[in-house]
Amino acid sequence: xxxxxxxxxxxxxxxxxxxxxxxxxxxxxxxxxxxxxxxxxxxxxxxxxxxxxxxxxxxxxxxxxxxxxxxxxxxxxxxxxxxxxxxxxxxxxxxxxxxxxxxxxxxxxxxxxxxxxxxxxxxxxxxxxxxxxxxxxxxxxxxxxxxxxxxxxxxxxxxxxxxxxxxxxxxxxxxxxxxxxxxxxxxxxxxxxxxxxxxxxxxxxxxxxxxxxxxxxxxxxxxxx
Length: 225
Fold this sequence. Notes:
There is one protein chain. It contains 7 helices and 5 strands, in the order ααβββββααααα. By secondary structure, the protein is α+β, with helices and mostly antiparallel strands. The protein has a 5-stranded antiparallel β-sheet with strand order 4-3-2-1-5, covered by helices on one side. The chain is elongated and about 95 Å long. The chain starts with a helix and ends with a helix.
């Protein structure tokens, strides 16, 4: 309509003085423009209209996989593992800077034994990614990482439970559970690491069982299937 009005009011004939357009001139311009648009449409040349924004669905069907890599040679009850979770093609892992998101299992590439990396398929689940990131991010915050008490395996276990109600197999968490108990009474872990391991006070309030229970309630509250 604005285009038609500007045509009716602004067009002049060469060699003739510009005259003030009347209301009838504007009406004729609108009719002419409408006819022109109809002809353009019939030729497939109608003006492009901005498509309507389509809301992204809250839940998406995504394949969930656990990815685990050994980080030391096998020893009785003391073989350590690094783990992460793949949600679709996106990897989520946890370290000192907080939750890290990558395209593919990039966090495992830094370990020498990444040739022994294994994947555990937990199937396709309906996932609310926004809720998942908010809920896990509220607990596994930057600076809370602790090698024994709140590590990558703690995160992976909670993430798997939140998304699928499955758990990271116990054999991948035995080392830190044993080491945590040993360190609590004999400080053996600190001795084995030449004092490099020091408990992180920011992880003191973390209780894994309580975290799992809280994530179960959060999942139900968000309408998880």
